[in-house]
Amino acid sequence: MSKVKSREHLKGGLRVVALFEATKGALVLFVGFGLLAFIHKDLHSAAEQLVRHFHLNPARHYPQIFIDAASHLTDVHLWVMAFSALLYSAVRFVEAFGLWRQRQWAEWFALLTGGMYIPVELFEIMRTVTWPKITILIVNAGIVGYMGYVLYRSRQGRKHPRK
């Protein structure tokens, strides 16, 4: 199989991963812009409203932590978080573009950035097992495994060129 043909059968999977990464980037960008809406606002009241909207008891431990954390955020913190969201999104969009165009640097980047979260995800599952944590681990391990397969196939194609 020629290099072009061997890469062609991987194209669909790479595009699915690219769309996944672009979606993550878009969601984080959306959240970053949402943070900017809270500049010069009373975050304590907004956090209490959000807790009540989800029918949580504001006196309980976790909702109280959320409300307290919101109370200590300043406009500078919000700007920094929004800027960080912008940077994260830019990285995800560049990765998605590279995967869509079947660039090997993007394949390596996806393998490495996805792989670095697996130990953290395993640690979190060992602390408490929940379906969302298991789902995230399975999706991430699937992407890392697929990217490893793509890179392996790419290397095999270079080792054994057809004449």
Protein model, in words:
The protein has helices spanning 3-8, 11-36, 43-53, 61-71, 75-100, 104-115, 118-127, 131-159. With 163 residues, it is mostly helical. The chain has one domain. The N and C termini lie close together (10 Å). The model has no long low-confidence stretch (mean pLDDT 90).
Got a strand count?
0
* Residue windows where pLDDT falls under 50 for at least 5 positions: none
**What is the global morphology?**
elongated
Beta-strand residue percentage: under 5%
Average of per-residue pLDDT values: 90
| Structural class category | mainly alpha
Distance between the termini: 10 Å
Strand and helix order: HHHHHHHH
Q: How many domains is the backbone divided into?
A: 1
Overall radius of gyration: 21 Å
Largest sheet: none
**Number of contiguous helices:** 8
Helix content: over 70%
Provide a compact summary of the structure.
By secondary structure, the chain is mainly α. The protein has helices at 3-8, 11-36, 43-53, 61-71, 75-100, 104-115, 118-127, 131-159.
Strand and helix layout:
Blueprint: H1 3-8, H2 11-36, H3 43-53, H4 61-71, H5 75-100, H6 104-115, H7 118-127, H8 131-159
